[in-house]
């Protein structure tokens, strides 16, 4: 793993978190916490995508793979945390 891929994963995670809370506002935990949760999810999602052969490196396929993996991971983790927080508040 190199720093470029990590930064791309974290940016994708933050964007995924903002995307999911924009589509479903009830999942939001607040703007700052959404970004932090998305970054964590982006890291995990990006690492999982990195296990797929051919999606490693800093070529265009690797960059897109890390960005999409980070975005999906960030959005999914933000949605899960939002659903758990919403369920605990009821």
Task: Provide structural commentary.
The protein is an all-alpha fold. The protein has one domain. Helices cover 79% and strands 0% of the residues. The protein has helices at 3-23, 31-50, 60-89. Helix 1 packs across helix 2 (31-50) and helix 2 (31-50) packs across helix 3. The longest helix is centred in the last third of the chain and has 30 residues, at 60-89. The chain is elongated, with a radius of gyration of 13 Å. The model has no long low-confidence stretch (mean pLDDT 91).
* Low-pLDDT regions: none
Helical residue percent band: over 70%
Question: How far do the termini sit from each other?
Answer: 41 Å
Please state the structural category. Answer: mainly alpha
Over all CA atoms, what is the radius of gyration?
13 Å
Number of domains: 1
The profile of the biggest β sheet is: none
Number of strand elements: 0
The helix/strand series, from N terminus to C terminus, equals HHH
**In percent terms, what proportion of residues is strand?**
under 5%
Per DSSP, the total helix count is 3
What is the mean predicted local confidence, pLDDT?
Answer: 91
Shape: elongated
Secondary-structure blueprint:
Layout: H1 3-23, H2 31-50, H3 60-89
Helix pairs in contact: 1-2, 1-3, 2-3
Keyword list:
90 residues, mainly alpha, single chain, 3 helices
Overview in brief:
The chain has one domain. It has helices at 3-23, 31-50, 60-89.
